[in-house]
From TrEMBL:
Keywords: Glycoprotein, Membrane, Receptor, Signal, Transmembrane, Transmembrane helix. This is CSF2R factor. Pfam families: IL6Ra-bind (PF09240). The gene is Csf2ra_0. The lineage of its organism: Eukaryota, Metazoa, Chordata, Craniata, Vertebrata. Its main location: membrane. It is a single-pass type I membrane protein.
Length: 146
C-alpha cells in the first residue's frame, strides 16, 4: 500500500571490510518534504529485526542512508524493510538487495625462477561476511612487464 512514487529509490547496501555495511537510497520522487524513512533489517529469518542506529541525512534532515558496524550474515539471505511516515501521504514499501564488496585476496606470494622463466603465485581467498566455500571465488591475474 501507499502512494506511488513515495517509496525510496536506488536502495543499495554494500558490505565492506567484512563487517561494515553502508546502505543508501534516494527520497521517493513524489515524497513530501516531511517524509521520513526508517530502515529495519535482520541477517536471517531466525534473528530479530534491528532498526538503523546511525542514519545518514540529507539537507532537509530526511534519512537517506544508514551505517552499520559488526554486521554478520550467516547465509545468503538478509531481509530489509524501509518504511516511512508523512503527514500528507501513505508511503509505499518495497523489497531490496544487498551487495558485498570483497577485500583483495590475502597473503599473495609470488615466486619467479629466472632460469625456467616461470612464476608461481599463491593466495588465500578474501575475507567475507557470509561466503564459506573458497570454490565460490574466481580470480583474474593481470601480469605486467616492468
Amino acid at each position: 500500500a501507499g502512494m506511488n512514487g513515495t517509496a525510496i529509490e536506488n536502495f543499495v547496501c554494500v558490505i565492506f571490510n567484512v563487517s561494515f555495511m553502508n546502505c543508501t537510497w534516494h527520497v521517493g520522487r513524489n515524497a513530501t518534504e516531511d517524509t521520513q524513512y526508517f530502515l529495519y533489517w535482520r541477517p536471517s529469518r531466525k534473528e530479530d529485526v534491528t532498526e538503523c542506529q546511525n542514519y545518514i541525512k540529507d539537507n532537509c534532515g530526511r534519512h537517506t542512508g544508514c551505517q552499520f558496524q559488526n554486521v554478520t550474515i550467516e547465509n545468503k539471505n538478509a531481509y530489509f524493510l524501509v518504511n516511512g511516515s508523512s503527514s500528507e501521504k501513505k508511503i509505499h514499501v518495497s523489497d531490496y538487495i544487498i551487495v558485498e564488496k570483497l577485500t583483495p585476496p590475502l597473503n599473495v606470494t609470488v615466486n619467479c625462477t629466472e632460469a625456467s622463466h616461470t612464476c608461481s603465485i599463491w593466495w588465500q581467498p578474501p575475507r567475507t561476511s557470509h561466503v564459506k566455500k573458497s570454490s565460490c571465488f574466481k580470480y583474474e591475474i593481470v601480469i605486467e612487464n616492468k
